[in-house]
Design brief:
About 0% of the residues lie in helices and about 35% in strands. It has one helix and 39 strands. The chain has a domain of about 325 residues: Single-stranded right-handed beta-helix, Pectin lyase-like (Pectate Lyase C-like). It has a 13-stranded parallel β-sheet, with helices on one face. The protein is mainly β and about 450 residues long.
Length: about 450
């Protein structure tokens, strides 16, 4: 898609079918009743995950039987599979398997997937002395349907320094109560994130539930060509979804919100919903550029959508903020700090709905930021006003509710058919297509006479 003269490039989403479709290698078993002197069969299983990781090869499957596996050293999987012969670690017959890392030395990761074409899915990972699951140097790794909690630092980390982590899928995980190093929260710098992407490429985060981490929820930092798609992110410390020195990255169809839990407040306020900045602890070689924030629902945050011009600054460059529904913020639903670097940035077809007389927008007019066809309600549009704006109650289904379906448009909404149809962006938040002939609706919901069923991730 070409927007204002530049093109957005998105990371491909890896297939979401069960893996693998057919076993091409050996099938090994691990059980708490086994022995590492065994051959690893169903009747004579290994005892430890480390033993399985040492023998696994391309196309092999590791079936882990129910129980608690207490590690005394990092479980490192550094073997290499292939696209047609992936390596798979999974619970046997979907049994409950817990990997407990409370016995690791200080500052050690729990699980490190540093090989290629590895699937790691279906486990509970808890009490890491550093990161729960890391893909340190991993490529074509898929981390799926795990439950990661009570890590001292991040629940999941993709990337590290100059190591080239790429083509990684983080899907369907529940990540909560990590970043314990920052519990209770402080305003000091350096807290980790629930899911942290650092100096990595082609990383997709989709259908994850990230909540109540004592650091940012999702932090995509010094990285390129990412996709943050259909995640639920709430009640994290400082920021729920954060692009920091990030490029060519799409934040699409996520819901991010606060249930007003004070233990996760910063500056006596809930986390920002979706934020962007160029922090100065990095070298400035990958400043914000060519990012898109579209079709998200942002509720009850400190600032709904935020750009901070602190540290390196540099402005929003070639950025699209479109078709979002932002409801209620303790400061502004949209905040864009003044920055001489703002370039070729469009804010179009969004609903900004403020409550309790607080400002809708905090922004100093910039020639690099264009506003068009936004709906503003609950306060003054200020310097964000643009052609095609609507200043009226959007008539949402249940404003003030805590689920995405509360922010559907009602049939009489003035947002219906009021969008600038020159900016099509595919599916709305609920997966409905925008009509190809135009007549788009402002906000994250494209109205239909349908009954909606919420998709909710549960811990």
């Amino acid at each position: 898609m070409i927007i204002l003269g530049f093109s957005f490039v998105q990371a491909p989403v890896e297939p979401q079918a069960s893996y693998p479709a057919a076993v091409t290698g050996q099938v090994y078993h691990v059980a708490t009743t086994g022995s590492d002197a065994n051959p690893g069969t169903l009747s004579q299983p290994f005892r430890t995950l480390a033993k399985a990781a040492s023998v696994v090869a391309a196309g092999d499957v590791i079936n882990v039987h129910s129980g608690v596996y207490t590690l005394t050293s990092t479980l490192t999987v550094n073997k290499v599979g292939s696209a047609s012969a992936r390596i798979l670690f999974q619970p046997y017959l979907e049994q409950e398997v817990t990997i407990d890392c409370s016995g690791l030395p200080t500052n050690n990761n729990c699980v490190t997937l540093s090989g290629r074409f590895i699937d790691f899915q279906g486990f509970e990972v808890r009490n890491s002395k550093r990161t729960g699951i890391s893909t340190w140097g991993g490529q074509h790794v898929r981390v799926r349907n795990n439950r990661i909690h009570h890590s001292q630092r991040s629940g999941i980390v993709v990337g590290h320094d100059s190591i080239d982590d790429s083509h990684v899928l983080i899907e369907g995980n529940v990540v909560y109560l990590n970043d314990q190093v920052n519990n209770p929260p402080t305003s000091s710098s350096g807290w980790p994130a629930g899911i942290a992407i650092f100096q990595a490429r082609y990383v997709t985060l989709t259908h994850n539930l990230i909540y109540e981490n004592y650091g940012e929820g999702i932090a995509f930092t010094m990285s390129d060509r990412g996709l943050i798609l259909q995640n639920e992110v709430r009640d994290n410390f400082s920021v729920n979804i954060y692009l920091d020195n990030a490029t060519n990255t799409a934040v699409e169809r996520n819901v991010t919100y606060s249930l007003y839990k004070p233990q996760f407040f910063r500056f006596n306020a809930p986390a920002n919903g979706i934020a962007m900045a160029n922090e100065g602890i990095y070298d400035g070689s990958n400043p914000l550029n060519n990012n898109r924030i579209v079709n998200n629902i942002v509720l009850n945050t400190r600032r709904g959508i935020n750009y901070g011009s602190y540290e390196l600054g540099g402005g929003l460059k070639n950025t699209l903020i479109a078709y979002n529904t932002v409801y209620s913020a303790t400061q502004a639903t949209l905040n864009i700090d003044a920055d001489a670097g703002h370039t070729n940035t469009l804010i179009v077809n969004n609903i900004f709905y403020q409550t309790d007389g607080r400002p809708i927008i905090a922004h100093t007019a910039s020639p690099g930021v264009t506003f068009r066809h936004n709906l503003w309600y609950g306060g003054s549009a200020g310097t964000g006003a643009g052609p095609g704006d609507v200043n009226a109650n959007p008539l949402l289904a249940n404003p003030g509710g805590s689920t995405a379906i509360d922010y559907r448009l009602l049939p009489a909404s003035p947002a219906i058919n009021a969008a600038d149809s020159g900016w099509p962006v595919g599916l709305d938040y609920f997966g409905l297509s925008r009509p190809s002939s135009g007549g788009y609706d402002i906000g994250a919901h494209e109205f239909r006479w349908l009954v909606y069923t919420p998709v909710v991730h549960k811990p």
